[in-house]
Write the structure tokens for this entry.
Amino acid sequence: MTLKIPHHDINLEPFMSGPPDFNRKLERIPTERSLKSQILAAIPLTDQEKLFHIRICDPAERGNFSFLPGQFVMLELPGCGEVAISISGSSSNREFLELCVRKVGKVTGMLHRLEAGAFVGIRGPFGTHFPMQEMTDANVLLIAGGLGIVPLRSTIYWGNEHRRDYKDITILYGARDPSQILFDYQVEEWRRIYGLRILTIVEHPDDYWDGRVGLITDLFEDVPIDPDNTFAVVCGPPVMFKFVCTHLSNLGLPRQRMFVSLERRMHCGMGKCCRCNVGSTFTCLDGPVFDYWTVMNLKEAI
Ligand SMILES: Cc1cc2nc3c(=O)[nH]c(=O)nc-3n(C[C@H](O)[C@H](O)[C@H](O)COP(=O)(O)OP(=O)(O)OC[C@H]3O[C@@H](n4cnc5c(N)ncnc54)[C@H](O)[C@@H]3O)c2cc1C
Ligand code: FES
């Protein structure tokens, strides 16, 4: 008996109607050019972090620049290099960008030496953003460890500006010690004026600290979580993701409703240089924001 295999024309499958876009040319946005920008202010926050207000010089380019919480820019110091930095301010502020930068090496060290008036380059915005639309009508839990509060700050502004779209917005923020708490001068404003619930915790208290002491997961004891109607956004050191997301998972929150922001060394920001790959994904294009289910299925993501 001969087995008759029906003819199957792969070109008739809708998703194969054109050649695969392996280079993602279609998704690319024209962000190869650095926009000339000027530092308006360089505000020290801690001994390691400064908040920079940076304005794109050309009014038309400034007007065209828009971003969503979670996206990042490539900040260029001419003659020194470029670094990926999350946008930390409000997406409705079209006057200047707020970037909070930790001094860790060559470019960030040089940036910390610059003062108001200095010129830098901005490319972007790049990457995926937090699911602000999908979170509508749900409780939002923002969990930040250390520098992780930086990308979450633009989410906090968004939450305030679209307050009616969300139910409870809770922020859990953990730092190594009280001197490392970023934006502590805004915490009271976020609590009282924005109507957000904010719980902070430090690992190593000083003599003046009268708040919670411990790890960020200890704060879950104080926060009732409705697993059926909550989204969580987690930003911080990768080691934190596992502990926090496992904890949330044990509370019944689906991993598809937990979002994390991955950090990789980046060069081009647009899927060209292959510096930021995790498996077959580019952190600069497919991320940095991923849902935790995807992250768990990506080899060596965290
Ligand atoms: C999407 C994204 C958003 C980011 N947002 C911010 C932000 O808002 N604020 C901020 O301060 N930093 C942020 N970073 C990290 C920042 O890009 C790096 O700290 C910066 O590139 C270091 O450059 P450098 O020349 O000063 O240090 P280098 O001299 O290149 O390196 C100094 C040290 O830092 C390590 N390092 C460098 N880059 C990274 C990286 N991407 N991840 C982990 N370790 C690294 C190096 O291995 C080395 O040990 C972000 C990174 C990514 C990918
Ligand atoms: S940074 Fe170059 S491919 Fe992602």
About this structure: Residues 10-26 have pLDDT under 50 and may be disordered.
